[in-house]
Amino acid sequence: MSYLSSNQLKQYEDEGFVSPINIFSKDKAKEIRNEIEIIENKMPEELKNSGRYNAHLISPLLDEVTHNSNILDAVQSLIGENILVCGTTLFIKNAYEKGFVSYHQDAKYIGLEPHNWVTAWVAITDSNEENGCMRMWSGSHKDNLKDHDQKFNEGNLLTRGQTVKNVPKEKTTPLILKAGQMSLHHPTVVHGSELNKSNDRRIGFVIQSYIGTDVKQVLGKNSVQLARGVDKFNYHEKIGRPQKLLEEKDIQLKKQENDYLQEIFYKGSDKKGKF
Fold first, then answer.
1. Does domain 6-265 have CATH number 2.60.120.620?
2. What is the pTM of this model?
3. Using CA atoms, how far apart are residues 10 and 17, in angstroms rounded to an integer?
């Protein structure tokens, strides 16, 4: 059992995030990285751009992470025992590539209401200040949703380049994680990340998000997996879990879910980015 301690719960309440949390070994993280790179080698386009979403539907190892009991115990401490998986994202920054994530709030464009949900950021490689780890604006989750500029700017790994202005960088906290550790963050905490200046890839696998069964998708539709407990609300269609790597039916399911996501992310926008 790895439920959050009272100190961890207090950190989440005060700061809007809790980190680091140990999940699995470095060896396991290496095995997961290998599976990601097998997919990239076999199907070079499959994880590119908007293909980075919902890779857990085609990869048994990423599916295993998504349903990991250590993660679910920690999540249960925050949103209760009835937990749905509402999607995942791979955030990969290659060495010396100009990829960054502007400061933003997850709840701004994702359509999940009420905010009884949490995002898990799982480090598949070490994540630190040199390779562009996440930085959190501590306590910013206590405010309302902020105005975001839509920049669609080069190198920004977000859909619309959504950006909160005037974030005080000196007040942000770097979330330094070893491979196999994770952080959890609140839907409205302001966060972002900078360039990878190291000579290796930085890989984060993000369950975005674990939602309570009482949460609706108000901008479109997502299918979900039941991760724990029971769903008395049935707001969402349920989907299964992959049995083997890169099965054709799972690749099609991933495409369907990613098409739904595009509709959600770009709702009301007359322009589309590449993610």
1. yes
2. 0.96
3. 10
